[in-house]
Each structure stands twice: as structure tokens, then as C-alpha cells.
Amino acid sequence: MKSLILRTVAPLLIALMLMFSIFVLLRGHNEPGGGFIGGLIAVAALAIHGIANGVETVRRAIVFDPLAIAGAGLLMATLAGLISLWMQVPFMTGIWIEPSLLGQKVPLSSVMLFDTGVYLVVVGALTGVVLALEERGED
Amino acid sequence: MEPIFAILVGLFFAVAVYLLLSKFIIRVLLGVAILGNAVNLLIFASGRILRDVPPVIGASLDMSVGPTANPLPQALILTAIVISFSFFSFLLVLSWRAYRVLETDNTDEMRVAEPEGDAPPPLRY
Amino acid sequence: MDGTALTCLTLFLPFLGALLAPWLTRRMGHNAAWVLALVPAAIFLHFIGFSAEVADGGIVTGGYRWVPSLDVGFYWLIDGLSLTFALLISGIGTLIVLYAGGYLKGHKQQGRFLSFLLMFMGAMLGLVISDSFLMLFVYWELTSITSFLLIGFDHTRQAARRAALQALVVTGGGGLFLLAGLLLIWNITGTTQFSTLFAMAPQLKESPLYLAALLLVLGGAFTKSAQFPFHIWLPNAMEAPTPVSAYLHSATMVKAGVYLLMRLNPAMGGTPEWQTILPVVGGTTLLIGALLAVRQTDLKLMLAYTTMASLGLLVLLTGFGSPHAIEAAVLYLVAHALFKGALFMIAGIIDHETGTRDIRKLGGLRRAMPITFAAAIAAALSMAGLPPFLGFLAKEEIYYALGRFDAWSVVFAAIAILGNALMFAVAFAIALKPFLGAKVETPKPAHEGPLLLWIGPAVLSLKGLAMAALAGLTHHLVSTPMASAIAGEPRLVEISLVPHLGVPLGLSVVTVVLGVLIYRNLDRLRALLAGVLADIGWGPDRGFDQAMRGLVGFSFRLTQRLQTGRFDDYMTVTFIALAVVLFATPFVFGEMPRPPVFPKDVPWHELAIMAIAAVGLVTVVLAKDRLTAIVSLGIQGFAVAVIFLLYGAPDLSFTQFMIETLVVVILALVMTRLKVYKTDHRPFRQTLPDATIAAACGLGLCLLLLTVTQSPFDTTLSDFFNLHSQAIAHGANVVNVIIVDFRGTDTLGEIAVVMIAALAILSLVRLRAGSMTTRMADNDPDAGEGSA
Asked: What residues in chain C have per-residue pLDDT under 50?
């Protein structure tokens, strides 16, 4: 698409959307949000990016192949489940630790890791599909 | 509220089925998309409807106070939405491929797998 | 390693050998047989170790639990019966593996053949050693499958393929009868093991289901043991290479049916039904088999039909059930395994070294093949029931059992004499005709076979001699324990080579005289039988062809009716079925919903958004062209998202918004490239039925939802999640906690599905259009026929 307005606004819009998607992912455990929704927002951002600036630009911007991202996410989610096995509790039991960082307690958990895995699978898989379809549109 | 939802769900299903009965792949695909929404609404309403209170526990509380919307169907539907989208995309790309090869979206003309007037199987051993 | 584990390992050893066989054969050629023969030899030695204990009346059991909740186990039972079988299987198996090494020397697929052979050996061994019903059934079917592979080994010939399929259909089908019978026995007695079944015999025999159970079990036994009219597969199985005929179709597999009858004799035998059905079927099979054997000129076919006759004799004796009959069955079974295995191998040697098996084209081979000739004479003497061979002991014992003066015994004694006399004649036809007389020119210049070939028949023939000479030891180690196991009570076998004057000896003499007469008139009898059979013109073998053709034709027509190949037919049937289920179920169970009470105070914006959804839906249906339809699809999707938001589901709402956007985007991306301009409007004659079905489905689901929401709501699960979300899982958003924590494993599965869908989509997108058309051409079902 050759719209000048879109191409001008797109970078800003995309940056905002990606930030928002991560925000939605992180707050998901306590307020509406989570890996699925955050991932979908990121996919939408990348899809817009693709339409505005071409698929090649997007591919360069995300560095990794979308499917590799999805695969890493799936691996991450699986590992998050396996942590609990190592702690002698059943598969997929949530494990929480609260290390202090600059005097501030930061709750970390395997559940967080799992949700991030979900996020990456959604981003990777759906971006891969959308980009592949957009690519076909260009030729 | 449930009776109104029942009627709406019935309408969703009727439209989805009508589209699925079409001979044309694109209509069928639209039917599949609507069928997904119909099923999600069915599950949603089966878990009972409550206006406006999301199942989020208030800050510094250990459990929700007062009635909230049923979280279980929501969790089911949330994943269902994403899965049915993946499935829909697959069907879409599949029919697009079929169109590229067979140059039609009329299912009556898509007879590669089950050709018309198939010869009887051989009776030799 | 303890004994249980060692026995278990022994049971799996043949399969291990089967894995190694192709590799070994590639490295060592036909000499791999020497190595592979160690497998059955080791098994033989292992089982010999039990013989002292079993001879003293002991029973060895062992095994492992398999599915405890269903009372299914992997248990074995080693008593006189199973031990004798195990020794026959492994002992003859050793010789057969060696023989196969020589017989298929240089064959491209020799490794595969030896592999199949060892697999069969493992299956057969497991069959006779099983204590559990289910284990027996699994091994039973496994012998059918391995036998299928072996018969069809030469798969480029249609006759071999037909024979393999026929054997599989007949014996595998019989196996299903057996399964049903065993399940019925389980149902009646509540036990799944033979060792505990024997104590339940009275309960089983008095059950009203006894006859049904018996008939089902017999269905399995008679098909496997080639009883008339299920015998057809056995002569056809001679399409297999000769080692297979010698091993499966004389010494071992066909005996599985007889084994089963013997195994069940203590539990089911002795009833009037048992003592009528078995002798009648066995006697019929004996006579028909012996007569058909005389009619043949092919060495292997002659042997195949005498095998059928011998199996009939064994069934007859088992059915008689008297002490002498059981002892006779035991001796005859062992003797038959030895002499028939030897004779098949001899027929194979003759075929291998001269190029023909037709008895009319053979003669004067005694100088060229002296060892084979000697082995043939020894085996034939045993088959004819002449001293000093084991066959003689068996025949004396048979006449002890049948030589009584009630009408029933006299009839079967006459049948046995006639059958034995015919087999006597066939035995000498095989052992003398090819070797004596003037030398006949054969397709290949005749000479003695190599060591690997003649060692098998030589050992088996000598064994028949040794077992008779050392009758006391034979009875102590083999006959007595086996007869006791079959009878279910201690028995003592005492017969020896020293003849006693009496009825049995008299009957033996009659048999020999009759046999010599038949032998001298063999050619005339053969011509006579050929004429009679030609006049009948139909047999169960042709019936099998007709049945198979009928089956294929029927299933073809049925498939054409059910699978029209038209997408909308399938869809119509599916949704009619759905509508029927939706209406019929509540109607049958009286669960129609009450008239709904509509709420009065619904805010207008909620109704408005539902109306928008409805409008969007209707627009999708009515849209003339596809692009309008796509846009309208977005309307209903966003309306659903708003509905989710209004009713306390913000997570769903956001997800739905994003997904609907993506749906419209990718639909637009793809649709703009489908250049479909033609209108796709449905004709009216199609619209009306489609709309009716759709309306019925919609109404049905509407009523279903009404019924569901009118019934009391069980909040256990929702309460659980609300209560524990914060306390256990430290999360305030209950929906998210369910997804990533409580039901995390489900979610893991779901993201895996998303991943797989993406992989599938990307491969479809990247596929070149050209490559797909070639793939379809490859898919032509007839394309492969030419190369076969």
C-alpha cells in the first residue's frame, strides 16, 4: 500500500501497539489481559507494519523467522511446566519466587514464563501466516 | 437474559448451517467462521449470564466479594477463539490452493479425491 | 536373572531374532541360518529344563500383570501339553531354519523370509504357552498374520496372493469366533486363565450358554486346524515355499486348533455335544482329506491333504475323550509332527534338486539321492504306522481306543481304518515312486541336496525311530504328562513296540492289507476320484471366490450410495442427523423446555447490539457477491465482541476484536486474489430445503440452550476457581489463572495446535502450484499395477 499518511503514522502506531501488547501480557494475571490477547495485539501491529512498509521490512525488524519465535514460545511453555517436575511436584504446578530488586519485591513465577510462551506462540504463528499471505499479495 | 441469548444463538446456528450447506467454498468458509461464534455464545450462555462484573478479584482481597461472571466458560472460549481462528485460516488457505489448482470454488467440480463414475474395484487377488 | 524373567525373555527371543535376520543375511548370506538356528535351539534347551519337573506331574506358571483393572495378564502355563508343543515348535523350528537356509540359498529376500519364520515361531510359542485367554487370542491372530506373510512370500504370483488372503480370511475370521467364545467363557465363569478355569468345569458345562461358547470356540479351532469345510486354505497354502509348508502347515500352526481343543478338554469336554460334534467333524475331515490326497499328483498337495486327514483324526480322537483315545491323540500328534515335517522337507529337496514335484514325472532317484531316500522310507514307515516307528505306537493306541463293539465305535473305527489305509498308500507313493523304478529325465539333473537340506528330514526320521525304541522314556517325559494335562487327571501311557495279539493288532493288519491294495491301484483310484470331482464341479474353494467377489461388489455399491463424492450431500446428511438428534432426544426423554420468561428491564443498548449482530448475519446470507458477505461477516463478529464486553468478559471481548480484525484482513487478502465473478446464488429448489434444515438446527439448539439454562446450575467448579485463584495461584484475573495455571496443560496443547496449524498453512502457501498437480497424478490407484 502506498499511502503516505499510513507510512508516516505506522512506525509510531506500531511502536505503541507493541508496547501495549507487552503491557497487556504482563498485567494479565491480575487484570484483563494475558498471553493470548497480548499476542494478538502484537500480530495486528506487525500486520499493519507489513501492509504499510512491505513484508520484507517486517521480517528484518523481527530478526527471527516467525515460526522460530513460535517454536521458542512452545519450548518455553513446556519448560515452564517442567520446572515443577524438578521441584518434585506434578507437571505444570505454578512455582513462585520473590527476589528483592533494589529493595522492591518482584514476584516471578513459572506461570509468568508459561504465559510469555503463549504470547510468543501466538505472535510467531499468526504473524507467520499473515505475512505469508501478504507476501503472496505483492507478487 | 438467557431466553434472549437462546434466540440469538439459534439465529447464529441457523445462519451458519445455511452457509455450510452451500456448494461454494467461500460461503462454506463464512459458515465456519460464524459457527465458531455460535458455539462460543452457546458455551457462554450455558455458564449463565451476569451483567457487567468481570471475574477479577479486587485488590487486597483473597476472593471475590459478591457475584461475578462465571470465569470457566470464559477460559474455555478464550482459547477456542484462537484455535478456531487457526483452523479457519487453514481452511481458507486450503481452499485458496484448491482454487489455484482446480480453478473453481464450486464443490461439485472438485472431484479429484472421489471422481464421478468411479470404476468398480478389481476382482483379482 | 530369575526363572520368570528368563522364560519371558525366551518368549520374546524369536522376535529379537526376526529383527536381526535381514541384517545377518545381508552380511553372511545363507550361512546366517546357522546363527539364527541358535535362537530356536536356545528356546528348546530352556524348555527341556522344565521336563523333569513336568514329568513328575508339576505345573510351572509365571508371568506379569498387564491390565490389572480388566483382569488381563501376561501369564504362562507350562504343563505336559504346552511343554510338548513348545519342544516341537522349537525343535522342529531349529531344523526348519537350517533347511530354509539351504532351500532359499541366494534368494534376494532370504533375510525377510527368515525374519517372518522366526516371528511365526514366536507367535506359535506364545500361543501354546499362554495361560490368559487374551494372550492366547493375540498370539492366535499373530500366527494368522505371520502365516499370511509367509504364504504370500512370493507376492508377485497371483496364486500366492490369493492363498495368503484366503488363509488370513479363514483363520483370522475363525480367530474372531474364538475371541467371542473366550469372552463368553469369561462371562460364565469369571476367570480369564486356563489354570483356574479347570476348577470351574461343572459351572461351565451346566451353563445355558455352554453350547454357544462351545460352538464359538470350535469355530476358531476348526478353521485353524483345517476341518471340513474350512480346509480349503490349507492345500492352497502350499503356494508358500516348502520350509513354510513343512513347519506351519504340518507340524505347528495347523495343530493350534487341536491344541486348543486339548487345552479345553478338561473344562468343556466329555459332554454329549463335545462327543458328537468333534468326532463327526473330525471323521468327515479324515475321509475327505484322505480321498483328496489320493487324487493329487503334486507331492506337496498329496502331503497337504493327508495333513488335513491327520488333523481330522486328531479332532476325532480328542472328541472321543476315552483314556485310550487321548493317549492315541498324544502319540499321533507327536509322530505326525515328526514324519510330516520330514516328508515335506523331502518333497522340497526333490523339487529343489530335480525341478519338479509331479509324482508322474519322477522315478529312479535312489542312486542320486541316497540320504533323502533313506529319510523318506523312515518317515513313510512311521506315517504308514509300521514298526519300529512312533507312528506304529500311535496307530495301535488308536485301535485300542476305537476297537470296541458298540455301534458308534464301529462306525468310527471303520472310518479310521479307511483313512489310515489311504494315508498308508499315499505315504508309500511319496516315499517309493520317486526313488524306485527306471530313471526318469527331470528338468534339472538330479543329485543329493546339501547338508543344510537333508539334515532336517534325517534328524526327524531318526527321532521317530528313537522315540519308539525308547518308548519307556518317551512315555515318562512326553506322553504321560501330556495325556494327563489333556485329561485333567493323572494318566499313565504304557504302550510299547512289542505287539499284543488282540483286536488292535487285527485292525492294524486289516489297515495294512487294505493300504497295499490301494497302493497297487492308485492310478485307477485317482482317475475315478478325478471323474467324480469333475462331476460335482463346485467346492468350497470356488465358494470362497464367489463370496469374496460378492463382498467386494456389495461394499462397492454401498460405498457409492454412502459416499456420493458431493460435498453438499455430506453436509445435508450431517445436519439432518443433527436436527433429528436435537429434536428426538428431548422428545423421547420428555425434556422440552418450559415457555421462556423474557426479562422486562433489558437496557436498549444491549438489545441494539444484538439486533446489529442479527442484521450482520442476515446480510452475510443475503449478500449477492462474496465481498459484501465478507464485510458483513465483520459486523456480526464485532457485535459478539461487544456482547462479551457487556456481560463481564473483557478478556474475551479484546480477543474477539483482534481475531475479527485478522479474519477480515486475511479473508480480504485471499479473496481479492480469487477471481470468482460468477454469481453463486442458490436456485430456489435448493434454497428451500437448505433453509428448512438450517432453521431446524437453529431452533433445536435454541431449545437446547433454553433447557440447559432452565435446569439448576452447578457452581462447584466456578466457585472453586473463584475461591482459590488468589489464595493458591496468586492471580486476581480468574480467567487468566484458569488458562495459564489451573488448566495449564490444556493450554499447552492448544498452543501446540496453533503452532501446527501455522506450519500447515505455511507449507500450503509455499507449495508450488505445479507440484500439486503432479502429486495428484501419482495418486492414481491403478498406476502401481504395471510394476507389480
From this structure: 774, 777-788
Give the structural domain span for B90. Answer: 2-51+69-109
Of B54, B89, B93, the CB nearest to A32: B54
Full residue range of the structural domain in which residue A12 is found: 4-138
- β-sheet bridge partners, residue C67: C72
- Whether A36 sits inside 8 A of B56 (CB atoms) is no
Q: Parallel, antiparallel, or unpaired: how do β-strands C60-67 and C72-78 relate?
A: antiparallel
Cβ burial of C405 (10 Å; 0-12, 13-18, 19+) is exposed
B window 40-59, beta carbon within 8 A of C = 40-42, 44-59
Is position C585 within any domain? yes
Mean pLDDT confidence for B94-114: 82
Partner B contacted by C680 (CB < 8 A): yes
Nearest residue in chain C measured CA to CA from A40: C658
Residue-number span of the structural domain to which C620 is assigned: 602-674
Confidence of residue A1 (pLDDT cuts 50, 70, 90): low
Q: Which among C308, C328, C490, C520 has a CA at the least distance from the CA of C428?
A: C520
- Counted across chains A and C, CB pairs separated by less than 8 A come out at 137
At A50-105, the pLDDT tens digits run: 888 888 888 888 889 999 999 999 999 999 888 888 877 777 777 777 777 776 77
User: Out of B56, B78, B89, whose CB is closest to A36?
Assistant: B78
Give how many domains chain A has, as a whole number: 1
Q: List, in order, residues 6 or more apart from C772 with CB less than 8 Å away.
A: B97, B101
Q: Same domain, yes or no, for C417 and C445?
A: yes
Nearest residue in chain B measured CA to CA from A130: B89
Nearest to A129 among B56, B78, B89 (CB): B89
**pLDDT tens-place string over residues C748-785:** 999 999 999 999 999 988 876 555 554 554 444 444 44
Is there a contact between A40 and C659 if contact means CB atoms under 8 Å apart?
yes
Same domain, C575 and C463: no
Q: Does residue C547 lie within any of the structural domains?
A: no
Do C445 and C580 have their domain in common?
no
pLDDT in tens, C242-262: 899 889 887 788 999 999 999
Structural domain contains residue B59:
no
Q: Kindly give the interhelix angle for C299-320 and C407-432, rounded to the nearest 10 degrees.
A: 160
What distance, in Å, lies between the first and last C-alpha atoms of chain A?
A: 13
